[in-house]
Design a protein that fits this description.
The structure is a single chain. It is built from two helices and two strands, in the order ααββ. It is mainly alpha-helical. It has one domain. A two-stranded antiparallel ribbon has the order 1-2. The radius of gyration is 13 Å and the shape is globular.
């Protein structure tokens, strides 16, 4: 199952998360893109060292 990552958007339509990602160095953007690809592929089954369950259905 492929998961969809939905980025936060303000009521005025500003994409603050995407703006933040765009402000990062290219090497950091590449690492983040890989992590997000893994999250989309594995969803809530992605475990350590990539994601950690915080309880209450939250994952960091």
């Amino acid at each position: 199952m492929i998961w969809e990552i939905i980025y936060y958007e303000t009521a005025s339509g500003q994409e603050v998360i995407k703006d933040f990602i765009d402000s990062l160095q290219e090497s950091t953007q590449a690492k983040l893109a890989r992590q997000l690809d893994l999250q989309e592929e594995h969803g809530n089954q992605l475990g350590m060292p990539h994601a950690k369950a915080m309880g209450g259905g939250l994952i960091e």
